[in-house]
Amino acid sequence: MQRFAIGIEFCGTRYRGWQTQQAGVRSIQQTIETVLSKIADEPISLHGAGRTDAGVHATNMVAHFDTQAIRPERGWIMGANSQLPKDIAIQWIQAMDQDFHARFKAQARRYRYVVYHSPRRPALLYKQVTHAYYPLNVEKMIAAAKKFEGTHNFESFRAAACQSNQPVRHVKHCRLIQHGPFLILDIQADGFLHHMVRNIMGCLLEIGQECYDIAHIDEIFAAQDRKAAGITAPPDGLYFIHADYPAQFNLPHIPLGPQWLNMPD
What we know:
There is one protein chain. Helix content is about 20%, strand content about 30%. The model has no long low-confidence stretch (mean pLDDT about 95). The chain has 2 domains: about 1-105, Alpha-Beta Plaits (2-Layer Sandwich), CATH 3.30.70; about 110-240, Alpha-Beta Plaits. By secondary structure, it is an alpha+beta fold.
């Protein structure tokens, strides 16, 4: 039995998220499993580094699977990409030891949320970014993003349907970058709650609209109540971009997608 790690890029617009769901509901995981099972001529179970919501995208979702099938690595990639829908692609594959696990060995996960700030809506970026047509105090948003760094109870920033048994997370960095009309929220943490990034972005957008001051974030944390945190930003602008693993696994690092998303660290 051989274990393989793969890196997946996908546009999540047509899917109900990463995780396999009930019959008739399209998911990223099930779509890839179906194709890999055909190539392997045996059932394949795929394990991802994290879960994404309906409509959320990824530039490098790491996953793994086990198989008895013997195929060259190029055969796995070319075979899968020739059969996968055009909005899902495997970017790399690597043979791994059995102690690798895409989810449980991940030490951190990283997302970027992209806002297109312009009075006019973009046509070519439809469903790839969130459009903010209203005035925003960007400097205030940049300062506010830093408030989410460190260890916090994110109860106010998770969805009511979140299944995590505890809401405390450590955020290594949370920064807002301005690049022309694009505002990119870059956030890395040891783990994320359901809708956590989208709720943080919603909070920053409200601060940018001068709905309240930066100090109000402390009150939202203290409330430990989802109703205190305001809007949930749309899924369109959210991208899973990276998962950190111990150096011993030596996984590939690939570019982070299109130029407007591929910002420097």
